[in-house]
Specification:
Layout (H helix, E strand, L loop, with lengths): L8 E2 L18 E7 L27 H17 L7 E8 L7 H15 L1 E11 L6 H10 L3 E7 L3 H6 L7 H12 L3 E8 L6 H13 L4 E6 L7 H7 L8 H17 L2 E5 L2 E4 L12 H8 L2 E5 L4 E4 L2 E5 L3 H9 L5 E5 L3 H12 L6 E2 L5 H4 L2 H6 L5 H5 L2 E2 L3 H5 L1 H9 L1
Parallel strand pairs: 2-3, 2-10, 3-4, 4-5, 5-6, 6-7
Antiparallel strand pairs: 1-13, 7-9, 8-9, 11-12, 12-13, 14-15
Amino acid sequence: MAGPLPLGDPAPADGRLPADLRIDPDGPFSAYLHVPFCRVRCGYCDFNTYTASELRGARQDTYADTLIQEIALARDVLAERGPLRPLSTVFFGGGTPTLLPAGDLGRMLGAVIGAFGIAEGAEVTVEANPDTVTAEVAEELAAAGVTRMSIGMQSAVPHVLAALDRTHRPENVRTAVEAARAAGLAVSVDLIYGAPGESLEDWRSSLTTAIGLEPDHISAYALIIEDGTKLARQIRRGEVPAPDDDLQADMYELADGLLGEAGFDWYEVSNWARRPADHGGGDQRSRHNMAYWRGTDWWGFGPGAHSHVAGLRWWNVKHPAAYAQRLAAGDSPAAATERPDAEAAQLERILLRSRMSEGMPLDAIASDARTRVAGLIADGLVDAGPALRGTLVLTLRGRLLADAVVRALTD
């Protein structure tokens, strides 16, 4: 289970949006559908997920019906504010969405498309644990309208998977990729680097294995130790070593080099997509995640899910049982809301947009902060060429020190 929800203002029981909220009727709109169930809890994970022993009365077999109730509520709330926008992207995350029957995921997808419509060529992604993907599951998801599968590989090395408490069999990653491919789905694989006991050569093995699967997209995230997790407690007790910053930097540089040689371009600090020229011209970047990084609108469905519409943020109650109880009573599951002020919104904009290869316009940065860009170029953190054309783009060194760049532009 994740840590406590952030503080905020009370959310209205009926879920209505503030009267003064100005929604762009032509802006993109996305949906995130959270499936909070896992067979086991990974030691590093602080997501809002629950194993069978933690459900306290919540039921997996009725979860789809419960979430569909929130979809109906969202449609009514947004219909009051003007024309409904078709979905540009849909993302099933978790947890392990594929712990639910593919038919349940299909019903949830059908409900959200039925409520809002879906744009032509929209991206629909399902996260999956390799051990839960069969040819039949992939085919049923594709038939329901899923276009993309994101497979949680994490590592190809057994002792690294064990350090992360991952229970899937490494060989099942290939089986899952092949099943998704055969069903016509685009494929992404997710990796984590910096686990206790992982060497640079272990990481090289995972990268070369992932590349050999020939996915369309690869995510590679540095292991972060979150308070309250099993791994944080193990490190505090001295049972396993904390991640080594220098080793993680070496691992990142290795990933960027190997992925670049294999035909992948970075488009966000932790994400690489196969070059369009190498894939028939198709754009394999995660359009759903780009919606987050660009700050467009989305509604998050499910316990603990966060939403963002026209600068208003809100988040649902965390536990699946409390979530179901709210909706059964005809109430919104939202726990609280917030409207970041101009300073907080600017900090977030810089934090997210600066991480993308498309960069951010220099004129979006406060004038006093723009004077520091020359120093960032001199330090090798910002690419001089795009900066001269009016866009801030991080160098490889800048990606390793992205937080320092953000501090320089916002302090």
